[in-house]
Amino acid sequence: MIPTGCPAAEPRAGAGPITILGAGIAGLVAAYELERLGYRVEVLEGSHRVGGRILTHRFGSDATGPLVEFGAMRVPSTHQHTLDYIAELGLSDRIRPFRSLFSEPRAYHATGRGYVRLDQAARILVEGFRADLPHGRYREETVLFGAWLTAMGNAIGPAGFRDRRFTVELLDAVDRIDLGPFVVGAGRDQIDLHGFFAGHPEVRAGCGGRLARFIDDVLSETSPELVRLEGGMDQLVRRLVSRVRSPIRLGCEVVGLDVRDRRVLVDLRIGDRVVTRSRSKVLCTLPFSVLRRLRLRNLSRTKVAAIRGMTYWSATKVAFHCREAFWGRDGISGGASFSGGRVRQTYYVPADGEPADGAVLLASYTLGEEADAFGRMPVVDRHEAVLRELSRMHPELLEPGMVLDAASMAWGQHWWSSGAAVSQWELDSATRSQERARAQSPENGLYFAGDHCSANPAWIDGAIQSAVDAVRRIHLDSRSRAAVPA
To answer: Which residues are the signal sequence here (predicted)?
Structure first.
């Protein structure tokens, strides 16, 4: 957050408010921070809701009904920007642990031999991993390490990144380290990967860019220190909206941007009309996947290339409102199963409300190709496909009256996002830094923010960080220009 000790520069005559495009978390944070610095602001949102990719869905007609997060659903404990905002907005007492994949011993894990309980999966995982290794080259603990890291990567990664064998250098490095302190589980057949990489950061640091990114994502997605907000992540959005005094106008779709020397012209579709607004400063928080279909004029070739070249991955979530949390009969108290197939990940959503209201199963969470396959289906067919496939792992779903309702969100096919987040799996750290610098660089009076402009794409923290950075830049530019005599 930005200290409020520095006053805003005096606005020049006719300058108008700073216009923010997009009412997702980046746009709302930017509006809040700019107001704290004394600026006049307006927020323009093309859709008819605020929040962007924070989207909490509640089943039933009651606002307190069982919920599922179709957008952002967790916060790593290291994401200080997000935690600071949670505290600033008075939500710290709502923080609860978030249990992810590999946190529930009795959850299921899909293997080539069918579904097995996670606490019984080691033998099959090790046998499969060992089959691709030179006979006798590595210690048993090293093979165990590789088997579990591969299993985690296969569970969370998009299709193109599954079953990639680790470089010999990584296994060789691990093989030289005493893994005894990190062998865990009742059968001593699991590896504490988080403890290992925390205790031996030199191993991760010695990996190539793509492998290091893979390890980072595995550790963040399966961290035991993830948290959530009881009552829904959209509480962040609602609290921010209540703090922003400036107008937030819905149904104002940006269709074109024209960057002039001292002005930015914003073409807006409002109903059946297209109008143009002229502003001295505009902050664009729209995803580049959306921005590139707009009519863009007088942007630099570097910026246009950055907008057109940024790759996004899709995500689709399908949720079932169930009569009861039937997975409790299986001894599953939370967390998630790796359901494999097209369904991929299944989360057992915590029931914060009354048991009589039922429970929610996030039946399928998919990325990339699988997400697009589901996303392109008619909604009813999508729900039926997930129900049919997941019932092989959870036959209780087919019990009469078990599934009360279904809902889903396909971000790749959503007009206002055209994707879930930036895909950087293929990029090394240097290329990621270059992409980020090109994304966040302003074009005269047109500034940029959003998780795609940050070091933490796909996370709330990245959106907040980029918004704060953009506000600082706008503030410094405003003060420096105000100091120059006209």
So the answer is: none
pLDDT tens figures, 72-86: 999 999 999 999 999
Token pair 């729900």 in the structure block, residue = 383
Over residues 399-435, the pLDDT tens digits come to 999 999 999 999 999 999 999 999 877 777 788 899 9
